[in-house]
Amino acid sequence: MTSPYLARTSSISLRQGLSALLLAAAGVGMTLPAHAETTLYVAGVGGSTEQMYKTRVIPAFEKALGVKVVYVSGNSTETLAKLQAQKGRQQINVAMMDDGPMYQALQLGFCEKLTDAPVYQDLYPLARLSPEATAVGMVATGIGYNEEAFKKRGWAAPTSWTDLEDPKYRQLLGMPPITNTYGLHSLIEMARLNGGGEKDIDPGFAVFEKKIAPNVLAWVSAPGEMDGMMQNGDVVMAVYGSGRAVALQNTGFPLKFIYPKEGAVALQVAACSVTPNAQSELSQQFIQYVLSPEIQKIQSESNGFAPVNRTVELPPELAARMPYGQEKVDSLLKVDWDTINQKRSEWTTRWNRTIER
């Protein structure tokens, strides 16, 4: 279906249509140069996110600007690795990653300063990671479970992070490793609930090794693979992101997502314009376009990314399935990425040696 504000471009020139409609929606008051025969390389995660961008986000941008956008698929750590491998000769123009790897990219100097634009005034303060990076969507890390499987077993719905320790889930639990942000959040929460935290991770490792690992059927980093195991009945509960939950729910699967009583953890999908960048201006325009109310709503509908643009209005049924609105956003737990990124390599080595053996 043609985008409402882009559909009107047929009555005016391509360039006028983009200036007046596309970037007006993103809150950008500027005149655009032509980008003939230009290719923009956008890196982001695969699966349902990749399909959403390729089918519902990128085509309108390409048509309005007369450019080609190539989506470079990979998880966030893979995108960061590509930036490191291509240092000084970057082939990626726009990088979209989970907030943890994005903070690493910022520390390594891979992102240029974002061009000021009115749309940034419409964002939740939490969304501005730095002058060089912005969140473009938000999800919550919590627990997903197969509602039908629980009913058949007569089990009550999980309510707490500590439910991951319950031995009744032995070999029925799916868990992302800590190379995945969902898994990392889980480790930190278990440390916090047992007297530690980012600066004292030992309690988290102890709980995982002694109580959670025996319940885990598989350590799964690929979201699509976790969905498959849930659909096949191999696992009945897993640590999930609210966005992934919406994507699976959209297939008709009876997945329920819960915010643990101790709190769900904020996970932001962030974007930056990579430096050095042969398409700097176009990269900035793409990020602003993704922040526009229309694209923010598409992300919410298709992939469960809660809008970071405060002006977006969602229908109540959809809003209830994600961290939407100031009150819900403020309730999310935050993590200390500065400490985490200093320790992450050490933790990963320890994890591989003691947990995921």
UniProtKB/TrEMBL annotation:
Matching entries from InterPro entries are given as: SBP (IPR006059)
CDD domains documented for this protein: PBP2_polyamine_RpCGA009
**Which keywords accompany this UniProt record?**
Signal
Where is the signal peptide, in residue numbers?
1-36
| SUPFAM superfamilies membership | Periplasmic binding protein-like II
Q: Which Pfam families match?
A: SBP_bac_8 (PF13416)
Query: Is Signal there in the keyword field?
Result: yes
The protein depicted here goes by the name: Branched-chain amino acid ABC transporter substrate-binding protein
* Organism expressing this protein natively: Pseudomonas oryzihabitans
